[in-house]
C-alpha cells in the first residue's frame, strides 16, 4: 500500500490536517507495510485533495480521511473501539475545524504563508491551482457556518462564534485530557489521531496571526501531549523542517539583529532615506539641465556677484520629490 | 472637414454672400465606408437632402443628415464633402454630397471606475454595435463595488430610425439585469434581478416617453445582526412585476449647471407581486425651472413629489425597499441620508408620501474671469430646501438652508460641498449641522 | 492543567445578559400544513419540545419567509425565536441562551455528563439533519412529489421554480461541505443505523438519555425521530423508517415524550 501525503514543515510529518490524521492513525494502529510518499500531486487524487491511498493489491484509490480509514478498518487494522469515538471526533471537528480553516485560509494575514506552504509541496503547473482549492473550501466553511464570504471586507468577517467554539473546544480537550497519555482511558484510540492532528497544526505552525496557538499554549498539557505522541510514534527523519524555517527559529532563539530591513537602527534608515533622496534629485536635476527644461544663468551684476537659478517648468516636477 | 456646419456657416458669413440666391439641387449622395450596415437603414437619414432648392438648403440639410447619420450609432467618425456634379449629363447646378465614414468595430469595450456616495465601483462594459446591420446593439455591463452592490446588465437595443416612424426616434430594448442596493441607514440590502422591456420614443412637444415592463425577483436581506425585526419580517424573495411609464421634458441649456430652461420627469408604476395581481401604484416626479439673472447668476427652483397607493386587499404591502426615504446630501440637504422621516426601532421605516422643494441661487466663482475655462467647472450656490413626509401640508415641515460650492465632473455628474444649517426639524430626524459632501447625477 | 480564558469573547455575551426572560416567547416557522420540510419541521419540533420541557409558554406564528428572517444559523435556519428584542434561529443559540441564564435542564450535571451531552448532540444534529436534507433534496422521487411542491407552495409562478432550484443548490452545497452529497441512500441509512445503535446503547432501559429527567438531547432526538416517523414519505425511502423502527427502545422513547408533552394537543 502506498499513502500520498504533503511533506511536513515545522518538525511535523505533514502540513495538512487530514494527512496528519491518517498518518497518526497508521501509527496508532501500528500498520506495517504502508509506504509513505511525499512526492505526489493532488492532481492524481480523485477529489483534488491529499491524502490518498493506493491499495497495491488491486490498484484501487482511496481519497480523503474517511475513505482511507474505512478501508483500513475493513482490512482489519482497527483500534480498540469506544462507541463514543465517533461522537468525540464529530464534536471536535464541528468546533475546531471552522476556525482553524479560517485561520489558515481565510485570515488575510495568514493566507500568503499557508498558500506558500501548500504551493511549495505541489509540483509545477498545479501549484497555482490546488492551494486555492483549500481557500474555496474555507469559503464554503465560512458561508455555511458564519454566513459571510471571504470576499467581504475583513471587518465583515464575523468569526466570533467560530472563535468561541474553537477555544471552548480546546479547553474541553485540555480538561478531559488531563495528564493522560491518550485521550480515552489511557489507551490508543481513533480520536487521538484527530486530536493530535488538530493540536499539531495549531501549536506548531508559525503564522503571523495565530490566535488559537496562543490560546492552546496556555494549556500546558496540550503541547505536552503533542510532543509526547510525536516523539513516541514518529522518528526524526519522518518529520521535516526546511532550512528557511530552521534559520528563522535559530534567529528567534538567539535574538540577534541581522541586516533585515525592519530591524535596522533608525539612524541607518534615515541615512538611506537621505541618500536615495539625494540621488533622485541629482538625477532629476541632471535630466532637467541636459534636456533644457531649466538652465542656470550666472548673471553679472554691478555690485553683487551671485549665481541665480531660474526655474521654469521644473517647479512642478520637484514638488513631489522633495522628500 | 468634420461637421460641416460651423465651417460652412462661417464661410458664408465671412464672404458676405447669400447662398440662397444660388440655385442648387443634389443629384447624388455617396455614403462610403460602410461594410456590414444594410442600405435601407441609412437611406432615410439623408432623404431630405434631395428636397433642397438652393445652396443654403444643401448646406443645412447636409448638416442635418450628418447629425442623423451619427445618431444611427454605426459610425466611428464621419466626414461630409460637397462637390459639383461632374458626370456627363449633369445639370449645371447639380451637386454631389459624399459622406466618408468608418464603421464602429465589431466589439468595443470600456473599463473604468465610478465614484459614488461612500462607494467606489469598478466597471467594465463590452458592446457590440450594429450587430445585424441595422443599428442593433448588444452590451454587457458589469460593475463591482466595494460594498458589494454588484451589477450585471445585458442589454439588447434595436432602433427603428429607418422605418416610416423614424422621426419619433423609436427604440426598443431588452435588458437582463441583476443589481443590489444597500440601504445602510435601515440595515438591509436588496437584490434585484430580472428583465426589462423598454419602448421609448419622442412624442410631439419634445417629450420623451418610455414604456417599460419589468419582471423580476426582489430579495431583501438583513445586513447585520442589528437589523430590527420589522425589517426582518420582510426579508425573503418576492416576485415583482411592474408596468412603468417615464415621461421627460428637457429644455435646459445644460445638464449640470443649467442657467435657463425647464426639466420635468415623471415616473408612474403599476406594481404587482404576481403576474395576475396588481395592487400598488407609485408615482414620482421631479421638476426644475431655471431663470437666468444678471451677471451670470441664475435662480433655480426645483421640487420633487412621490406617492404610493396600495390596495391591501389585492396584495401584501410593498416591501421597504420600494418606499421613499427623504433626506440626504443630494435631496434634502442638512439631513442625513434618509434622516428625515419617521423612525421605528431606531431606523427609518420609509414613507409612502413625500415632497421636497429647493430654491437655489447659482453664481459663478468670484473673480471667475481670471480662472479661464477652469473656473467654469465651479459654481457657488445659496440654497434653501424644505420637504416633508407622509403629508402634503406644511405641518412638521423640515427646512434647511446653506451655502456651498459645486464642481462639475464630466457632462452629467457633479460634486457638492455644502455648509448646511437645518432650520426646522422633527424630534427623530438626524441632521448634519456642518459640512456635507454630495456626489451624484440628479440633485434637488 | 491550565484552562485558558476566553473572557474577552464572552463580553459579547453581554447581549445575552440583556435578554429579559420574562418576555413572551414567539416562534416563527413556515406553514405547518403546506410548506414546512422534514429537516425544518424536526428543528422546530426540537425547539418546541425543549421549551415544553422547561415549562415555558410560547406562541407559534406561521409565516412564509421565516427562514429569511433568521439572524444566524448554519443548517435550516429555523425556527426563528423571538424573546423581547432577542432573536435567534435554530436549536443551538436558544439552548445557549437558557444555559447562560442558568435555566437549562442540565444545570447540575457532572462535567462528564455534560461532555457526553454536547458530543451526542453534535452527533445527532449532524447525522439526522443531513439525513433529512438528503432525503428531501437528493432523492428524485421525494424531491418531485413532496419537496418541490411544499417549498414552492408559498411563491407565485415562476418564482416557485426559481426558489426550488436555488434552495436545492444551497442544500447540496451544504451537504457537499459535510461530504454527504455523493452518498447513496443505503450509505445514509447505514449511518443512521449506526447512530441508532449508539443512541440505544446510551439510552439503555432508562426513561431518558441521562436518567429520569429530560435533557436537551432528549428534545433534539425526539424532534428529529418523531418527524421522520410521522412525515409521509414515498415507499422508495421507507427503508429509513424501517431502520429506525427496528429499535423499539427509540420508538418507545418517542412515544413517551409525545405523551408527556404533546398528549394534550393530540387528543
TrEMBL record, chain A:
CDD domains reported in the protein's UniProt record: GST_N_Metaxin1_like (cd03078)
Record has Transmembrane helix as a keyword: yes
Subcellular location as annotated: Mitochondrion outer membrane
GO cellular component entries: SAM complex
Signal sequence residues: none
Domain Metaxin glutathione S-transferase: 166-228
GO biological process, one term: mitochondrion organization
TM regions (residue ranges): 273-298
Keyword terms of this UniProt record: Membrane, Mitochondrion, Mitochondrion outer membrane, Protein transport, Transmembrane, Transmembrane helix, Transport
Pfam family, one: Tom37
Domain (Mitochondrial outer membrane transport complex Sam37/metaxin N-terminal): residue spans on this chain: 19-134
Keyword Membrane applies: yes
Family from the record: Belongs to the metaxin family.
Protein name: Uncharacterized protein
Species annotation: Polypedilum vanderplanki (Sleeping chironomid midge)
UniProtKB/TrEMBL annotation, chain B:
Membrane topology: Multi-pass membrane protein
UniProt subcellular location: Mitochondrion outer membrane
Swiss-Prot/TrEMBL GO biological process terms: mitochondrial respiratory chain complex assembly; protein insertion into mitochondrial outer membrane
Keyword field: Membrane, Transmembrane, Transmembrane beta strand
Domain Bacterial surface antigen (D15): 130-443
Major place of residence: mitochondrion
Matches recorded under Pfam families: Omp85
UniProt cross-references to InterPro entries, sorted A to Z: Bac_surfAg_D15 (IPR000184), D15-like (IPR039910)
The keyword Transmembrane appears for this protein: yes
Annotated coiled-coil segments of the chain: none
GO annotation, cellular component aspect: mitochondrial outer membrane
Family to which the UniProt record says this protein belongs: Belongs to the SAM50/omp85 family.
PANTHER family assigned: SORTING AND ASSEMBLY MACHINERY COMPONENT 50 HOMOLOG, SORTING AND ASSEMBLY MACHINERY SAMM50 PROTEIN FAMILY MEMBER
Designated name of the protein: Bacterial surface antigen (D15) domain-containing protein
Source organism of this protein record: Polypedilum vanderplanki
UniProtKB/TrEMBL annotation, chain C:
UniProt keywords, alphabetically: Membrane, Mitochondrion, Mitochondrion outer membrane, Protein transport, Transport
UniProt cross-references to InterPro entries, sorted A to Z: Glutathione-S-Trfase_C_sf, Metaxin_GST, Mito_Protein_Transport_Metaxin, Sam37/metaxin_N
Name the UniProt record assigns to this protein: Metaxin-2
Signal peptide start-end: none
Boundaries of every Mitochondrial outer membrane transport complex Sam37/metaxin N-terminal domain copy: 44-168
Keyword Nucleus: no
Cited CDD domains: GST_C_Metaxin2
Family of the protein in this entry: Belongs to the metaxin family.
Major localization class: mitochondrion
Amino acid at each position: 500500500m502506498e499513502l500520498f501525503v504533503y511533506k511536513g514543515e515545522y518538525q511535523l510529518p505533514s502540513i495538512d490536517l487530514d494527512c496528519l490524521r491518517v498518518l497518526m492513525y497508521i501509527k496508532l494502529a501500528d500498520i506495517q507495510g504502508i509506504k509513505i510518499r511525499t512526492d505526489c500531486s493532488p492532481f492524481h487524487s480523485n477529489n483534488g485533495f491529499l491524502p490518498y491511498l493506493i491499495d497495491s493489491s488491486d490498484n484501487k484509490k482511496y481519497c480523503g480521511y474517511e475513505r482511507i480509514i474505512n478501508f483500513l478498518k475493513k482490512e482489519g487494522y482497527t483500534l480498540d473501539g469506544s462507541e463514543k469515538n465517533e461522537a468525540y471526533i464529530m464534536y471536535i471537528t464541528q468546533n475546531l475545524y471552522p476556525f482553524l480553516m479560517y485561520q489558515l485560509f481565510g485570515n488575510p494575514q495568514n493566507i500568503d504563508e499557508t498558500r506558500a506552504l501548500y504551493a511549495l509541496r505541489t509540483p509545477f503547473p498545479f501549484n497555482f491551482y490546488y492551494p486555492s482549492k483549500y481557500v474555496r473550501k474555507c469559503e464554503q466553511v465560512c458561508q455555511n457556518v458564519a454566513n459571510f464570504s471571504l470576499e467581504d471586507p475583513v471587518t465583515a468577517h464575523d468569526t466570533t462564534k467560530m472563535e468561541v467554539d474553537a477555544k471552548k473546544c480546546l479547553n474541553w480537550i485540555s480538561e478531559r485530557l488531563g495528564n493522560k497519555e491518550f485521550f480515552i482511558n489511557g489507551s490508543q484510540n481513533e480520536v487521538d489521531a484527530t486530536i493530535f492532528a488538530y493540536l499539531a497544526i495549531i501549536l506548531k505552525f508559525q503564522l503571523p496571526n495565530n490566535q488559537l496557538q496562543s490560546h492552546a499554549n496556555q494549556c500546558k498539557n496540550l503541547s505536552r501531549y503533542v510532543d509526547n505522541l510525536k516523539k513516541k510514534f514518529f522518528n526524526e527523519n519522518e518529520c521535516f523542517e526546511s532550512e528557511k524555517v530552521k534559520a528563522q527559529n535559530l534567529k528567534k532563539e538567539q535574538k540577534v539583529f541581522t541586516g533585515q530591513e525592519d530591524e535596522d537602527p533608525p539612524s541607518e534608515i534615515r541615512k538611506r532615506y537621505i541618500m536615495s533622496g539625494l540621488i533622485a534629485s541629482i538625477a532629476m536635476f541632471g535630466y532637467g539641465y541636459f534636456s533644457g527644461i531649466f538652465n542656470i544663468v550666472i548673471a553679472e551684476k554691478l555690485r553683487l556677484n551671485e549665481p541665480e537659478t531660474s526655474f521654469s517648468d521644473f517647479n512642478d516636477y520637484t514638488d513631489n520629490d522633495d522628500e | 472637414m468634420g461637421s460641416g456646419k460651423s465651417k460652412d456657416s462661417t464661410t458664408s458669413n465671412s464672404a458676405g454672400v447669400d447662398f440662397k440666391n444660388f440655385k442648387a439641387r443634389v443629384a447624388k449622395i455617396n455614403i462610403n465606408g460602410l461594410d456590414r450596415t444594410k442600405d435601407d437603414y441609412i437611406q432615410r437619414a439623408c432623404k431630405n437632402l434631395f428636397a433642397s432648392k438652393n445652396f443654403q438648403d444643401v448646406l443645412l440639410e447636409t448638416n442635418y443628415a450628418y447629425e442623423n447619420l451619427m445618431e444611427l450609432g454605426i459610425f466611428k467618425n464621419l466626414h461630409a464633402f460637397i462637390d459639383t456634379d461632374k458626370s456627363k449629363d449633369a445639370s449645371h447646378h447639380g451637386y454631389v454630397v459624399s459622406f466618408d465614414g468608418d464603421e464602429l468595430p465589431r466589439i468595443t469595450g470600456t473599463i473604468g471606475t465610478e465614484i459614488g456616495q461612500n462607494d467606489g465601483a469598478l466597471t467594465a462594459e463590452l458592446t457590440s454595435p450594429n450587430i445585424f446591420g441595422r443599428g442593433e446593439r448588444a452590451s454587457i455591463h458589469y460593475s463591482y463595488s466595494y460594498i458589494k452592490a454588484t451589477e450585471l446588465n445585458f442589454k439588447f437595443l434595436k432602433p427603428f430610425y429607418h422605418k416610416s416612424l423614424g422621426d419619433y426616434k423609436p427604440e426598443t430594448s431588452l435588458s437582463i439585469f441583476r443589481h443590489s442596493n444597500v440601504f445602510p441607514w435601515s440595515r438591509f440590502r436588496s437584490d434585484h434581478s430580472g428583465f426589462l422591456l423598454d419602448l421609448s420614443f419622442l412624442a410631439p412637444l419634445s417629450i420623451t416617453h418610455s414604456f417599460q415592463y419589468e419582471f423580476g425577483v426582489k430579495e431583501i436581506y438583513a445586513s447585520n445582526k442589528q437589523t430590527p425585526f420589522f425589517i426582518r419580517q420582510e426579508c425573503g424573495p418576492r416576485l415583482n412585476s411592474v408596468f412603468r411609464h417615464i415621461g421627460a421634458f428637457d429644455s435646459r441649456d445644460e445638464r449640470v449647471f443649467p442657467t435657463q430652461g425647464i426639466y420635468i420627469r415623471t415616473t408612474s408604476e403599476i406594481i404587482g407581486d404576481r403576474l395576475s395581481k396588481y395592487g400598488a401604484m407609485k408615482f414620482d416626479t421631479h421638476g426644475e425651472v431655471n431663470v437666468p439673472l444678471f451677471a451670470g447668476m441664475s435662480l433655480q427652483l426645483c421640487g420633487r413629489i412621490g406617492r404610493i397607493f396600495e390596495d391591501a386587499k389585492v396584495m401584501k404591502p410593498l416591501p421597504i425597499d420600494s418606499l421613499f426615504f427623504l433626506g440626504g446630501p443630494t435631496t434634502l440637504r442638512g439631513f442625513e441620508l434618509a434622516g428625515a422621516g419617521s423612525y421605528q426601532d431606531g431606523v427609518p421605516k420609509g414613507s409612502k408620501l413625500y415632497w421636497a422643494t429647493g430654491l437655489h441661487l447659482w453664481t459663478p466663482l468670484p473673480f471667475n474671469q481670471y480662472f479661464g475655462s477652469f473656473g467654469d467647472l465651479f459654481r457657488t450656490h445659496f440654497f434653501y430646501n424644505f420637504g416633508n413626509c407622509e403629508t402634503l401640508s406644511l405641518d412638521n415641515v423640515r427646512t434647511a438652508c446653506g451655502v456651498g460650492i459645486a464642481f462639475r465632473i464630466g457632462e452629467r455628474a457633479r460634486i457638492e460641498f455644502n455648509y448646511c444649517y437645518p432650520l426646522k426639524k422633527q424630534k427623530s430626524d438626524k441632521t448634519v449641522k456642518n459640512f456635507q459632501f454630495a456626489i451624484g447625477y440628479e440633485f434637488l | 492543567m491550565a484552562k485558558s480564558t476566553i473572557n474577552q469573547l464572552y463580553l459579547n455575551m453581554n447581549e445575552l445578559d440583556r435578554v429579559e426572560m420574562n418576555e413572551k416567547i414567539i416562534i416563527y416557522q413556515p406553514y405547518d400544513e403546506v410548506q414546512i420540510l422534514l429537516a425544518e419541521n424536526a428543528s422546530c419540533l426540537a425547539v418546541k419540545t425543549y421549551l415544553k420541557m422547561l415549562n415555558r409558554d410560547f406562541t407559534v406564528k406561521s409565516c412564509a419567509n421565516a427562514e429569511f428572517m433568521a439572524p444566524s444559523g448554519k443548517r435550516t435556519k429555523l425556527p426563528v425565536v423571538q424573546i423581547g428584542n432577542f432573536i435567534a434561529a435554530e436549536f443551538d443559540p436558544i439552548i445557549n441562551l437558557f444555559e447562560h441564564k442558568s435555566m437549562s435542564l442540565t444545570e447540575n450535571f457532572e462535567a462528564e455528563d455534560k461532555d457526553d451531552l454536547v458530543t451526542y448532540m453534535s452527533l445527532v444534529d449532524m447525522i439526522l439533519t443531513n439525513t433529512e436534507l438528503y432525503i428531501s433534496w437528493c432523492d428524485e422521487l421525494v424531491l418531485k412529489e413532496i419537496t418541490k411542491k411544499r417549498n414552492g407552495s408559498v411563491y407565485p409562478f415562476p418564482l416557485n421554480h426559481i426558489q426550488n432550484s436555488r434552495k436545492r443548490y444551497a442544500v447540496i452545497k451544504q451537504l457537499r461541505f459535510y461530504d454527504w452529497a455523493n452518498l447513496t441512500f443505503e450509505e445514509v441509512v447505514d449511518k443512521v443505523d449506526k447512530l441508532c445503535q449508539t443512541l440505544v446503547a446510551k439510552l439503555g432501559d432508562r426513561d431518558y438519555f441521562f436518567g429520569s429527567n429530560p435533557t436537551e438531547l432528549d428534545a433534539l432526538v425526539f424532534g428529529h425521530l418523531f418527524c421522520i416517523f410521522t412525515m409521509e414519505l414515498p415507499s422508495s425511502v421507507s427503508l429509513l423508517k424501517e431502520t429506525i423502527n427496528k429499535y423499539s427502545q427509540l420508538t418507545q422513547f418517542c412515544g413517551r415524550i409525545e405523551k408527556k408533552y404533546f398528549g394534550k394537543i393530540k387528543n
